[in-house]
Design a protein that fits this description.
Length: 107
């Protein structure tokens, strides 16, 4: 799995990240998973055509001293489909901008 890991976070930084994510994103099936939805204008042509598979999201997982951002763009309604793929350049840029914004709030 391709993912981006930010580690060596202090407990108070992790707590603040969780609060921010809970305020802005949809929580996944467990307490430490969140979904960063991709805007429609960033979907690949295949993802855009697969209306039944939308929304498409990045998974974010928060641990005790880390936060992990998966590079896989997941369908929230279908586990196995050709529209599920690793992020395009523009989709990764969207995720990195989100990460930068999130980290800037820790300062």
């Amino acid at each position: 799995m391709r993912q981006y890991l930010i580690d060596d976070l202090k407990k108070e930084e992790v707590d603040k990240i969780k609060r921010i994510l809970k305020d802005r994103l949809e929580q996944g099936g467990t307490e430490n998973i969140f979904w960063l939805n991709l805007p429609e204008d960033l979907l690949s042509s295949t993802q855009f055509e697969h209306k039944a598979c939308q929304p498409f999201s990045f998974a974010i997982e928060v641990g005790d001293s880390w936060v992990k951002f998966e590079e896989l763009v997941r369908s929230r309604t279908n586990l196995h489909c050709g529209c599920i793929s690793y992020a395009t350049w523009n989709q990764r840029l969207f995720m990195f901008r989100f990460i930068d914004s999130l980290l800037s709030e820790l300062s």
